[in-house]
Amino acid sequence: MNLRERLQQGEKISAPGVFDPFSARIADQMGFPVLYMTGYGVNASLLGLPDAAFASYGEMVARVRSITEVTDACLIADGDTGFGGLHNVERAVSGYEAAGADAIQLEDQEFPKRCGHTRNRKVIAIDDMKKKIVVAAAARASDDFQIIARTDALSEHGLDEALRRAEAYVEVGADILFVESPESEDQMRAICERFPQTPLIANMVAGGRTPLLSDSALFDIGYQIIIHPVYLLGAALTGIRRAAAQLQSTGVEADVDNINGLNEVLGFDKIWAMDEKFGA
Prior knowledge:
- The chain is α/β, with parallel strands linked by helices.
- Helix content is 49%, strand content 13%.
- The chain has 2 domains: 3-229, TIM Barrel; 239-278, no CATH class.
- It has 13 helices and 8 strands.
């Protein structure tokens, strides 16, 4: 079942943020039906850099493809600002769709964009973003591929402006809305009350601008998709630091999955089965 079908059936979706094929395989094997390819995580894991538009279109679409090739889950993929002008948006939509994503997320920030829970974000004119959405909707080969419109206007311009933009984006073809960085439950409820017929995304980031609520509480408020873009990346940071400290202080490997666990995740059983079958 694709993402569009899941949404049409009213499914409530909790999507962990994945940032490479390895993290995606783990989340897929854990049974998550939808994954979220986080731009923050791709910049961090691929380049070791902040989420400030450093990853190129080519790097991002390659990461989409590498994830979909090793997973069965639906994939929502961060497309940042569309990587440039309208021609770039068209290419990004076509490329992400061909690479196997179920949806692309496009935001109304100026280039270079910033993580939605950090400082110094600026938004483009509403009409410029509307053009991007029109181009994006026209560029897809199938209506099953979903266009997510994200607005970052709330933090600098207030809730009313964010809602005005979100409404305009739906009117020109956005399938899913993502109003970034609401700063209270009241704001979150106002967003959901304004768009009862449109799937809405809530973005949970520990230490960010938005109250950290449970998935069930967010579903009750009215959100249909909950993304956790940096939770698994944060877990990797915690685990790597802990393991490195253990090695540094004792010189002994301990308290982590060993190579057998890694082999299981990566599918070495298929390699060995083929070796046995063909005598490789």
